[in-house]
Design a protein that fits this description.
two-stranded parallel sheet, about 65% helix, single chain, mainly alpha
Length: about 80
């Protein structure tokens, strides 16, 4: 499985975000992606990438205060500068 590229800056922003606000962000992203219908292969890939991003956000939400968060993201995301 290909890992999702996830910016370190975004990781720090989501890590410092209030848990309720982060959960609302995840839920709104899920709702928006659920109604999208891809018209071609490129859109399918974009939507799949956004679902992977939501998975990363859920891990961040669960382990927001964990100092080992970057190691926990290792199997699903590549942190980029």
């Amino acid at each position: 499985m290909k890992k999702t590229r996830f910016p370190r800056v975004a990781l720090e922003n989501f890590r410092s975000m209030a848990p309720g606000k982060l959960k609302a962000e995840i839920e709104s992203s899920k709702a928006r992606l659920a109604i999208l219908t891809p018209r071609n292969h490129k859109e399918e890939l974009l939507i799949a990438g956004n679902w992977k991003r939501i998975g990363v956000l859920q891990v961040i939400l669960e382990h927001q205060q964990d100092p080992e968060l970057e190691k926990l993201l290792g199997p699903i995301a590549v942190l980029v500068d």
